[in-house]
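Issue 218. Parser rejects a valid record. Input:
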Amino acid sequence: MSDQSAAASGGVLTRRRFFEGLAAFGGVSLAMAGMDALGFGFSSAMAAPPTLEGGGKGTKIVVLGAGLAGMTAAYELTKAGYEVQVIEARSFAGGRCQTARKGFQHTDLNGNAQTCDFDEGLYINHGPWRIPYHHRSTLHYTKQFGVLLESFVNDNDAAYVYFEKGSGPLKGKPIRKGEIAADARGYAAEMIAKAASKGQLDAPLTAEDRDLFVAYMINEGRLSATDLTYTGTEGRGFAVHPGAGVDPGPGKPSVPYSLTDVLHSGAWHVLTSVSGYEQQRTMLQPIGGMDQIAKGFEKRVGSLIRYSCVVQKIKQSPKGVTVTYTDKFGEQDTITADYCVCTIPLSVLKGIDADFSKPFKAAMSGVAYAPVNKIGLQMKTRFWEENHHIYGGHIYNDMPGINTITLPSTGWQSQKGVLLGFYAFGGEAAKISAKTPADRAAFAVAAGQKVFPEYAENFETAFSFCWHLAEFNLGGWAEWGEQGRKEAYPVLCEPDGRVYLAGEHLSYLGGWQAGAIESAWQQIGKIHARVRTA
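Output the parser choked on:
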């Protein structure tokens, strides 16, 4: 659900360090700050749920939490004949899989109450918002439930890069990402090609290999074949676009920024030759909002869910598990089952009265949860399309607390649109969440105005969400450190008595819906094996 750019290294920028740091520019990689799994780039390992052969008739399962992990467990267990009951603290299902649209209500732990008042048909995915092609578990259910998908533009050369902390004439100036990518790639290729042509690279090259490598650099950087210089390329855009007749006729190519200006701008930090494994240039999203996935599950298991029921106690005996909860009327009730699948985030579960073993309780304290903020801003015109010709993608910047401004990948050429005004993490998220919703919106609009002169005059309404201030989450996702992964994580992946934990926090796909789904698949497989051998 974060983005971070690499920090500039200190010291003298030698040619070799420049080569090693730049490689061949062109793409955008979103390194998900605070999400170690996303940084490591683990892919979805499972494509389908386990086969629960023989069924589980006569066995009762209580599932705590109706997020995607909980509903996945309920759906698959019910199909196998298990008797399932789901307890959910919210008045709706989906967990983090939420979409704010007209009428959506939320009150955070600071007492800020919001009711989303976007126009009909407009929304913001303030939880998960994109699906990589290789998250086959998520796509398994979108296909099975008939959830239609569309492209999510995760990289756009037409989008702007805006850096205030650099220096030179590009500082504080919106720059097309494609322009900076073309120039950085071109100059890097020029330097490498000239060095290679003179045999000045460390790697041993035959004469033939050297000629082929230089030819590759010429092609890669769009260099002159005669003197190996970079003077621009039509791929970076035109100052005057080609058209009819003799005026504008062939148009006028844009002039490259100088190598010095490119380097000192700092804008090259958002570039990389290969996009991150979890962050392809084109991803997927459900048409109409991410909560269409949750609704697909809810259509099938909604009758099993007791809504607005907050778990108070989890107690075990040699024969079963008893869960005590308080319903929406303030009445206390209990439910007893043979086994429990608990998908409550560890940040919340640690505060529940449960008779878990000491090692299990200790392991639960081995992980922190990420502060995360998002805000959706409704604009009365889609000025980014009409005036700037940008259709989707991210506006990367170095403005504190903003991190990413993202333009919608749906509703092309319609009148209005909702863009993501900030996506903040860690300490910056904590600072912004201390503001009132109105002040958060003002903060986001002031930042966006630096990039787009039409921003403030087009702003209409906002909806913000701080996951660390959400009562039943207390954070956006689990942040495992190296020691926690080694010592605590394996303990929590195994049952404590008759309680099995599941959720994104028990996967290496932290923060992703696939992590929640595949964790549930793994745990129900373990339960079924235990039932069949009991």
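Fixed in the parser; the record now loads. The first helix runs from residue 15 to 22.
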